[in-house]
Structures are given as C-alpha cells and as structure tokens.
Design a protein that fits this description.
about 45% helix; seven-stranded mixed β-sheet; alpha+beta; 10 strands
Length: about 290
Amino acid sequence: MAHANHIRAIRRTLRREMPSTVGLIADAHDFAAMTRYRSFAFDDHTAYLRQVEGLLRALAAQGAHTTVALFDPDEFTEFCTSEGLDPDTADSRTRFTAELAAGGACVAYAGQPIDSLVPQLINKAVRKATWEYATLLLAEAGECAECGQDIGRAAFDRASHLVLSLLEAAGPGTHHLVCSIPAQAEQLIAVLHAEREGFDPVRLDETDAAEFVTVLAAGIALHSAGGLVLRSTELGTPDRLHGWRLHQGRLDPLTAGEVFSAYCTDAATGDPLAPEPDVEYRAGFPVDQPDSHH
C-alpha cells in the first residue's frame, strides 16, 4: 500500500512538472467545422467551453502549469495533410496541439474564467498574425537602390530609435502607445504599454516592444502613411493624449486640434464622439531630428 501511495505521489510531482497544453476552439464557426469528425465528441460550443473550463480548473487544482493554445481547424487539416495523419482521430488532434504549444498563439492559464480567456486567446492570435505579416513585409522590402542597404533592417533600426526617443521624451508615468499602419492587405495595429518612474529606465515587455517596432518599421519601409498615439497617465493629473503622423520615416507631431479630431471622430461613420472627461488633448512633441536618418 505504501508503495502504491509512493507511486501516486511521484506521479503527482511529475504532473506538476510536466506542462500541459490544452487546444481551445474559440470560435463557434470553427467549432462547427470540427463537428464533421466522428471522433470529435462535442456538438454544442457553449457546453464544450464549459467542459474545457472544468478541465483547466482540474489541472490547476493538481498544481499543473497549463497553456491554452488556439486550435484552428484549417491549420489542423493542413497539419494532418503534411504529416500524413488521419484528421478524424483524437491522436491527430493531440499531436497538432503539441505543435501549437511550440509556435501557436498561447495564453497561460491562471484561473481566469473562460469568458475572458477566449478574447485573450483571439487577441494573441491577431497580434501574432500582425507581427508575422509585418515581418514578411520587412523581409520583402529588399535593398535600397541608391546605397545597397537592407531596407527592412534599416527600417527596424529607425523604428527602434523612434520608439525609444518618444518614450524618453514622454517622461515619467504610465504610457500606452498605439501604432496604426495601412498595409497592402490590411490595417496593421500594434499596442505597447510602458512605465517609467522618475528618471529610471523605461519598463516594458520585450515581446510587445518587438511587435510594436516591427509594425512601425513596416510602415517606414513601405513609405506608408500611418499614425501613432500616446496616452500618458500620472497620479493626480488628467490623462494626456499626444499624436504623430508617420511621414517619410519621420514622426511628425499632430496639432492639439488634430489629436482631438482623431480621438473624437468615429472611424467607421465619421460622426463626432464626445470627448472623454479628465483628458487633455495635446499636440505631439518633437521625437527626433528629421535629418538624422538615411
């Protein structure tokens, strides 16, 4: 008996140390596509989401570290075709989920309810697709006809410099940056959250920063129009909103009126929106010297 208990204890320990990945079909349309497989045991998306939530809670109760990955039926079909697998088996779904753990859109499970986990996962997938598309645009930019320089690499260096200069000039506080770049196939949007206390260095997430810089760099490499807005928050003062226009690799400051118009106009309809209370709409500030780049 003692030996059996010992084995169980070892298994529990291993369970904690072996991270799990749970593939989640977040979208009702994608779920419907999976129901064509006879080995897929679910027929109701809402009930399926509740079952997944129960599984995640059970794994967490055992002390397991669990990652939730976005399960895309189209990618699953492609995976099965390329690997020569039968898509109508639980084993194929498990193998695909293991692949997702390595390179797919994933969110760590930390007890959050399924209703907030699903949007987190979709947001992660959108960001991943945006980053991959922006990276592809940079890779395809080629070399400068005049100087032979790699356009994508130069644009990335330029964008890194601009973002660091902007955050340096923004001063202390909590900063929320949004960059929007019209590209050939879609609007690229990236978000970056940064914090700075006093004269300390800026604190930010490195992955978020890399995504943000890549999107801005794509705009620079494509000579695209685009915009960047900054919302700064400090205790005891109204939020400050600043804006810039991307133009020929420069961030040109918008006027206070242009910032107000950008924020207080419905992008879809063009209708005016009420300004936010306790918010100051300010001109962008100079980010760097216009002649300081190639």
